[in-house]
Amino acid sequence: MRPTADSTTCAASAAVYAPAVEHHRQVLAWHATARTSAARRQTAALAADTGGFVGFLTYDLGMADTAACHYQRAAEHAQEAGDVASCANLLGQMSRILANQGHHRQALALAYKALRLADQRAHPAVRSWLRAVRAYHHACLGDARAASADLNTAWTLLERADDGEVPPYIGYLSAAELGKWTGHTLTRLGGDTPSLFLRSRTALDQARAAWPPTMVRGSAEVLTASAHAYTASGEPEAAAHLLSQALAVATATGSSRNLHAALHVRTLLARTTGRASSRNP
C-alpha cells in the first residue's frame, strides 16, 4: 500500500521518485503477466495505488503533463479492479492539474465525471473532497452559486466521513483540508467583493491553525493560499510573512509545484504593493 501524499514529511520528492517509479514498474509487470482474472484485479488495484503515488510525486516535481498521464492510467487500473471510489479520486486529482494549467472547463467536466462515479458507492470522504475540488473549478469559471452549493455539500459529507472506513488514499481529509479548499474557492470568487476575501482569510486561518504537522507539503499550499487571500484583501505585510514560510517549506521539500505557486503569489503581491506605492508617492 502506498503512503499518503504527505507522509514522507520533509523528504524531497526527488529522493523517493526513482524507487517509487521502479516499484510501480514492477507492479505493472506483475499485472501484465497475471494469468487469472482474480490476479489481474488484485494487481490492477495495486497498480492504481502505486500509479497514483507516482502521479503525485511527478506533479510535485513540476511535471504536470506526465503526472496527468500517470493519474489517467492509475484511474484505468482502478476501474479494472472494480474500485469506483479510487477511480473517481484519481480523476479528481487529474482535474486539479488541468485547473492549475488554466484548463478550467476541462477540469470541471472531469470533476463532474468523477462525481458521477463517486455518487454510485464511494465513501463520503471521497465525495466530500471531490465536491470541494469541483467548487473550486466552478469558482474559476465565475459560478458562485454552484461553487457555494458544492462547498456546502462537501462540509455536510465531512460530518459522515469519520466512520473508521476511510480509504487510505483520502485519509488526509479533515476540516483543515476543506478549509483550504474553501479559501481557494472564495479567493477566486472574490472579485470586487471584500467580504469574500475576509471569509477566505478566516477559513484559511482556521485551516493553518488545525493543519497536521506531518502534512508538510500541504502546509506550503495552505500558507500560499493564505498569502493569496491576504494579498487580495490588501494586507501585504501579513501576505509577505506567510509567503516566506511557504517558500521555506517548498524549498525544504523540493516541491516545484509549491514553489511555483508561491512565486506566482509573490508576483501578485509585488504588483499590488507597486500599485499602492504609485497611488501614495
Outline of the structure:
By secondary structure, the protein is an all-alpha fold. The chain contains twelve helices and no strands.
Radius of gyration: 19 Å
Query: What is the ordering of alpha helices and beta strands?
Result: HHHHHHHHHHHH
Coarse structural class = mainly alpha
What fraction of the residues are assigned to beta strands by DSSP?
Answer: under 5%
Largest sheet: none
The geometry reads as globular
- Helical amount: over 70%
Describe the protein's topology:
Blueprint: H1 13-33, H2 37-60, H3 64-80, H4 84-100, H5 104-121, H6 124-140, H7 144-158, H8 175-189, H9 194-210, H10 216-232, H11 236-253, H12 256-279
Helix pairs in contact: 1-2, 2-3, 2-4, 3-4, 4-5, 4-6, 5-6, 6-7, 6-8, 7-8, 8-9, 8-10, 9-10, 10-11, 10-12, 11-12
What attributes characterize this protein structure?
281 residues, mainly alpha, 12 helices, 0% strand, disordered N terminus
How does this model look, in words?
With about 280 residues, the chain is mainly α. Helix content is about 80%, strand content about 0%. It is built from twelve helices and no strands. It has helices spanning about 15-35, 35-60, 65-80, 85-100, 105-120, 125-140, 145-160, 175-190, 195-210, 215-230, 235-255, 255-280. Helix 2 packs parallel to helix 4 (about 85-100), helix 3 (about 65-80) packs antiparallel against helix 4 (about 85-100) and helix 7 packs antiparallel against helix 8 (about 175-190). It starts with 12 loop residues before the first helix and ends with a helix. Mean pLDDT is about 90; it is low at about 1-5.
